[in-house]
Amino acid sequence: MRMYLISDNIDTCMGMRLAGIEGVVLHEREEVVAAVRRVVEDPAVGILLITEKLAELCHDVIDDLKLNQKKMLVVEVPDRHGGSRATDALERYVNEAIGVKM
Fold it and tell me: What top-level branch of life does the organism fall under (predicted)?
């Protein structure tokens, strides 16, 4: 089982490539949706990595995959400029989930 990256940033793609993860750089919604569908059809891919910006671009397709896809894990990754989530997001999630302040 292997991982595949769909990125909007060449630097992110190159960094993942150095780690042995194949990928593609895309910018248009139609290209991203087509690439996601190709990856879903590939039985060798077990984890789909997609940058947060592209996941937002086609959130309906990604959300559907996350909810209904049983054979593949879909992970949104930040690009080299950082994520769109707040820096204290993990701390806030833990606090809300179990009531422990870190």
Answer: Bacteria
In tens, the pLDDT along 61-88 reads 999 998 888 889 999 998 766 565 555 6
User: Does residue 24 contact residue 5 with C-beta atoms inside 8 Å?
Assistant: yes
Strands 22-25 and 45-51: unpaired
**Which residues have a Cβ under 8 Å from the Cβ of 62 and sit 6 or more positions away?**
36, 50, 55, 74, 76
Torsion of CA 47, 53, 57, 62, to 10 degrees: 20
Structural domains of the chain sorted by starting position, each given as residue range(s) with its CATH number in brackets: 2-80 (3.40.50.10580)
